Automatic annotation (TrEMBL), chain A:
InterPro entries, sorted: DUF112_TM (IPR002823)
Keyword tags: Membrane, Transmembrane, Transmembrane helix
Residues of the DUF112 domain: 20-440
Listed transmembrane segments: 20-39, 45-71, 111-134, 140-160, 172-188, 208-225, 260-283, 323-344, 356-379, 391-408, 415-444, 473-493
Protein name: DUF112 domain-containing protein
UniProtKB/TrEMBL annotation, chain B:
Classification of source organism: unclassified sequences, metagenomes, ecological metagenomes
Xref: Pfam families: TctB (PF07331)
Cited InterPro entries: DUF1468 (IPR009936)
Residue ranges occupied by any DUF1468 domain in the UniProt entry: 8-141
UniProt name for this protein: DUF1468 domain-containing protein
Keyword line: Membrane, Transmembrane, Transmembrane helix
Membrane-spanning residues: 42-59, 80-104, 116-136
């Protein structure tokens, strides 16, 4: 019951006209980011951080804006899956399987509408799950000592590559690189200058915002330049909406199953939205078996993955808000915003910054209603924007990134740094070193060192303290599994996801 | 099917790990002794992990990605140079001129017709400048167009 009271307070925060305006703006921009080529959710949120920061938005407003963008991007990803058979972002991959055939059968408008409804249902289920689970988990997390936190951070890195990750060693290397970058600057506990080389700008450390924007936005531009994918896509006709009420009702069980499965996949470390949509699609196929015409444009084949990936998106916020340990790229970027607002993420946030946490959760609910309203009548606008060629879009996005970084500090030094990160990010991405662990390393590195230090001080320098409590041992074990499992199970799962994509009659 | 990319990366990371770890050993012990964690402890752990990771990369490399050659590589270098020049000229030339040139050149090199590209650059520059300077009152550099 306590929770309901907090949620009401949250609504009071989120429903002020000022915050509502930003939620609406975020939902719109998020959908755009999700559907535009070359602008993934993590990338889009990253570019908005410096802007939210320089605008001097109050913390709850900034978080509401970015959370709405995050929710919107999950909606937007489906548009190009359905119309063009090209997933707008990775979790929208499974939506191609039945969405595109539906569009080819002349039911594009129906597919877009039902997927918007499914996204709404999935997100709603996920958010309700978040509301019930987060306070419990936060209370549990209060029992964590520094040793447990240290193990938890390791777990976060180990599972970040996901069960489907290719080479866990590359995740480890990426994480270490990120943490190494975070050690540049003056050491907080002893005052020693580390790796600054006497450069004044480095004394305070490397600002992770410019690193994130460089790694995402600039490297994305370089990828498009290399692939010479500047030309836009041809315009697509959507047609009339013929969806009947009966059809919507008939998909309700699918929506419920997809949303719940997605939420679970989102909360668990190492799973994430892509796996969420994959699992719910496969389950739907097994449950309905012969009764469905999956792969040929079955409406439930659109509903299941969309409910799944949106459920997972809300689920992924659970570890981010309660433990301060994000499980996906976009939630990592949201964490960056929290840290730069001087809010220490973790269980204490629920007591110290209850207005922000619950404001964000309420905004997620409101944002979903807004998104549903935006996405059904205004779908034509988004479809038209889908054909904006990247050769115009990406340079402008890059320029916005420059403006954002410049306006934080008014120094061109930061701009050069951002370019360096962009080029470095391009090279590392070419070598299949993932970006997200680098960013997480940058964000969590200082916390990790602090907790290690505290643990050692409490135990008088005895290193075995790190694995002396049962909880810590459990975390170490899961972390170990997170590194070992991908090499064992990963190839099988990847092959399945791959062959599911191939079975579709459309992917030639 | 070679795997030179990962091997070279592994070698670079190995060198980095040693340099990073060695620098950490040079710091003077902080005043008050090293109870618990010294400034060098955490970097030393990181360096060790990176040594292991880089050795693994060199022993078991993945197959190489397709690296850009010829024209693509040239376009990439041009783009990077454009970005650096953009950062360099933003303050002296002012935001509008620098942005028109940078966005224009980039989208032209990505395949847009030159006229369309530079018009896009100019329009986006003016819109963003107006939005920031007048709408949000965050000043972007005026540069040459001082009285604008």
């Amino acid at each position: 019951m306590e929770t309901i009271g907090f949620l009401m307070d949250g609504f009071a925060v989120a429903l002020t006209p000022y915050n509502l305006m930003f939620a609406l703006f975020g939902a719109f921009v998020g959908t755009l980011i999700g559907c535009l080529p070359g602008l993934g959710p993590a990338n889009g949120v990253a570019i908005l951080i410096p802007l939210a920061f320089t605008l001097g938005l109050p913390p709850e407003t900034a978080m509401i804006l970015l959370t709405s963008v995050y929710a919107g991007a999950m909606y937007g990803g489906r548009i190009s899956s359905i119309l063009l058979n090209i997933p707008g972002d990775e979790p929208a991959m499974m939506t191609c399987l039945d969405g595109y055939p539906m569009a080819q059968n002349g039911r594009a408008a129906d597919a877009l509408a039902i997927s918007a409804i499914a996204s709404f249902a999935g997100s709603l289920i996920g958010t309700v799950g978040l509301i019930m689970l987060a306070p419990v988990l936060a209370r549990f997390a209060l029992t964590f000592g520094p040793a447990e936190y240290f193990a938890l951070f390791l777990l976060a890195f180990a599972t970040l590559g996901g069960i489907t990750g290719k080479n866990p060693m590359k995740t480890v290397i990426a994480a270490v690189l990120g943490i190494m970058i975070s050690t540049v600057g003056i050491d907080i506990s002893t005052g020693t200058q580390r790796y600054t080389g006497g450069v004044l700008e480095l004394y305070e450390g490397i600002d992770f915002i410019l690193a994130i924007v460089g790694l995402f936005a600039i490297s994305e531009l370089l990828f498009f330049v290399e692939a010479r994918m500047g030309k836009g896509r041809s315009k697509v006709k959507v047609g009339k909406l013929t969806l009947t009420f009966k059809e919507i009702v008939s998909t309700i069980p699918t929506q419920l199953r997809g949303g719940v499965l997605g939420f679970i996949a989102g909360v668990l470390p190492g799973a994430g939205a892509s796996l969420g949509s994959f699992i719910s699609y496969t389950l739907e196929k097994t449950v309905l078996g012969k009764k469905g015409r999956f792969g040929e444009g079955d409406i439930r084949g659109v509903v299941a993955p969309e409910a799944g990936n949106n459920g997972a998106a809300s689920g992924a916020l659970v570890p981010m808000l309660t433990l301060g340990v994000p499980g996906s790229g976009t939630t990592a970027v949201l964490l960056a915003m929290l840290i730069s607002l001087n809010i220490t993420p973790g269980p204490l946030m629920f007591t110290q910054h209850a207005d922000i946490v619950w404001g964000v959760i309420a905004a997620l609910l409101i944002g979903n209603v807004l998104l549903l309203v935006l996405n059904i009548p205004m779908i034509g606008v988004f479809v038209r924007l889908l054909s904006v060629p990247p050769m115009y879009l990406l340079p402008i996005v890059t320029m916005v990134a420059f403006v954002g970084i410049y306006s934080i500090s008014h120094s061109t030094f930061d701009l050069y740094f951002m370019i360096v990160f962009g080029v470095g990010g391009y090279i590392l991405r070419k070598l299949e070193i993932p970006m997200v662990p680098i960013i997480l390393g940058l964000l969590l590195g200082p916390e990790m060192e602090k907790n290690l230090g505290h643990a050692l001080i409490l135990s008088d320098g005895d290193w075995t303290t790190l694995w002396s409590s049962p909880l810590a041992i459990g975390l170490w074990l899961v972390a170990g599994l997170g590194l070992v499992l991908p090499t064992l199970v990963g190839p099988i799962l990847r092959r399945r996801m791959h062959s599911a994509m191939k079975e579709g009659p459309v992917s030639d | 099917m070679t795997a030179m990319g990962d091997r070279i990366l592994g070698l670079c990371l190995l060198v980095l790990a040693f340099a990073y770890g060695w620098v950490a050993q040079q710091w003077p012990e902080p005043f008050g002794g090293s109870e618990g964690l010294g400034p060098e402890t955490f970097p030393t752990i990181l360096a060790t992990v990176l040594v292991v990771g880089s050795l693994y990369l060199m022993i078991k490399p993945d197959t190489d990605a397709q690296w850009p050659v010829g024209k693509s590589a040239l376009e990439l270098v041009i783009s990077i140079i454009v970005l650096v020049i953009y950062a360099l000229l933003m303050e002296p030339l002012g935001f509008i001129i620098a942005t028109t040139l940078a966005v224009g050149t980039l989208s032209w090199r990505m395949g847009a017709p030159p006229k369309g590209a530079f018009v896009t650059g100019l329009v986006s520059a003016v819109v963003v400048f107006g939005l920031f300077n007048y709408g949000l009152s965050l000043s972007l550099p005026n540069g040459l167009l001082g009285g604008f």
